[in-house]
Amino acid sequence: MSRKPKSLPGTAGPTNATRHQILMCPPDFYGVEYVINPWMDGNIHREVATKARRQWRGLHAVLSDLAEVKLVDPRKGVPDLVFTANAGLVMGDQVILSHFRHPERQREEPHFRDWFEKNGFKVTEMPSGTHFEGAGDALFLRDSPYLFMGYGFRTALEAANVINEVLQVEVVPLGLVDERFYHLDTCFCPLTGGYLIYYPKAFDERSRAEIERRVPAAKRHAVSERDALSFACNAVDTGAAVVLNDATPELESVLKSWGFEVVRTPLDQFLLAGGAAKCLTLRLNEPRPTAASRKAPAAPILSRRVEFRGHILDNGTLSRVMDVIPNAGGTYRVAEFAPGVRKDDESRILMEVSAPSERALEGMFLQLLALGGNPQEERLSSAQVVVADLDGVAPENFYSTTIYATEVLIDGTWRRVEKQRMDAVVVLAEGRPVCRLIRDVRRGDRIIVGSDGIRIHVPREAGEDQNEFKFMGSAVSSERRVEAAVDHIAWEMDRIRQQGGRIVWVAGPVVIHTGGGPHLERLVRGGYVSALLGGNAIAVHDLEHAVYGTSLGVDLARGVPVGGGHRHHITVINMIRRAGSIARAVETGVIKSGLFHRLVKSKIPYCLAGSIRDDGPLPDTLMDLVRAQEEYARLLEGAEMIVMLSSMLHSIGVGNMTPAGVKIISVDINPAVATKLADRGSTDSTPIVTDVGLFLNILARKLESLRG
Ligand SMILES: NC(=O)c1ccc[n+]([C@@H]2O[C@H](COP(=O)([O-])OP(=O)(O)OC[C@H]3O[C@@H](n4cnc5c(N)ncnc54)[C@H](O)[C@@H]3O)[C@@H](O)[C@H]2O)c1
Question: How many whole angstroms separate alpha carbon 565 and alpha carbon 553?
């Protein structure tokens, strides 16, 4: 029986009437002999021959009925030759030969080349090192000008430029993210008439958006996980029928509603190697896509060069770079690599990084600059400037700052950005680049956008884990280890104090609950506190302690709750509100002791930033958060050291305002919090995992002993 292609909705045209020619390879030597995808795992040398041959013959019979099938001879020792989809990408009489990623499959290349040459195809090869796995990763969207190309596991992103140049078609790169769907044809199946079945979760977000942008919703169907795992997307489209291993009734009814006949033919023996119907076939009379004859679009893949130097192997920089690139949908090629030979030697790597769009490349490049990458363009371009069109709003694509010293190239000169901080924009104010918060941008301001002409100075040792005073990864550190860390911190603090430098403290209410208040007071007396930043709570609890000897109703001397203690803090808030401010309460004798009493007496500035959970609040607490941020920033100016004591909220807020180079000590009982600030890549950060009361006690004692 011969099935005639029937007319499909919207498919009238010469391409559909043409009987498909398909290349297959008998499975005489098929078997799982190595593992190069997760499907093969555990299947090595499993007995598949008899059943696989039967299944292959089943597929061959179905396809011979619907199309014209040609064969390539099988070869011993080349088991995956059976998957002819990976022979190359055919269009008209041209074929771009595959260049497999794995050496095991590279053995197939000469056999396929021979076959194509003998059968009159013009063969083009990929440049060496540019991996490409043929129609397994390159699929034409029927009745459209597009060729979709999968990358991420097998095919190199750069292959898109070669295809674009050789075939003069618009290539849309799609990033594959699920190892089980390592080739595009395992999760993406364009069908006659511009239809598409695909498994969206196999793609990164950008690629899903690309697919949705190019294939109208009515013409695409997202298959279920069940269909995806039975390789329903690895289907052969013969024009009228869709031939596949299996399909759920839901998928079958979608395909039928589009006018296709659904033909199931079991292929589970090939699934053991990660392939099914489509993998076992290659269409040989692939027509030129519609509108492909128009002017070829520009090369889709853009590249830039970036260099990293320093102890990049041992300090984790290189592994972070390797994370950033694929996460941004990009790829890289190492152009030069000189590893340090001895322990103290620096390493150097020059990379060419590529991304599937200009925007993706720019986003990725900026992340690489923030890891200390140096742009290596042949001709450096000046920073790009766009004028803000609204108050408080930055232009799209604005450059967002990091904590590290940054320079921008303006009129041929590198200029250092002033008031460095993270999450700001760079404004050119009278030609000088200055960090400014988005809310402070004014219409007409000249803002740096993009990634051209930007250089970031990340300290060489950034990310290094060599600071002997870090307690990352440990649970609560022993008192002895805290003492060792404190010895060093105390020495630095005393040095800063003697040189008239500023030490700013950020503290949460736990300082008071743990009995650390009096020790912090000792530090204020010693001249080690230039400003205190906190919230409503630290002041409330300190004042409560000053008045009642309790903190949140707990007697700190005895560690037990006292009767009626639950209303102490609110009563104290009321007292301060009546006095007008903490300072007035101190001056009028309402508050006679405690940390805030000492701050007022010693004329040390403090800022209390409000939060939604604040009781009262105290009259001093700034409930206008923009004002509070400004006041924090003012008090932080010129700080040489910042000590963050058990307040996640305020410490992170302060961290974001602080440029690199300022020493940060963060003390928290929770290792995750203590190390969070270190995670921003600052080498100047020392996380200490301990009880804050204990830390302050040891520190105050140490500093007093230093002063004699
Ligand atoms: N009554 C009030 O008005 C009131 C009460 C509590 C909090 N607040 C407000 O809520 C906001 C957040 O408060 P926060 O800073 O306390 O909370 P936070 O969650 O930001 O930080 C508390 C930190 O202390 C750590 N910690 C707990 N016990 C510790 C110990 N013994 N030693 C060392 N570290 C320890 C925790 O791990 C946590 O990271 C602030 O604005 C604060 O003023 C208000």
Answer: 4
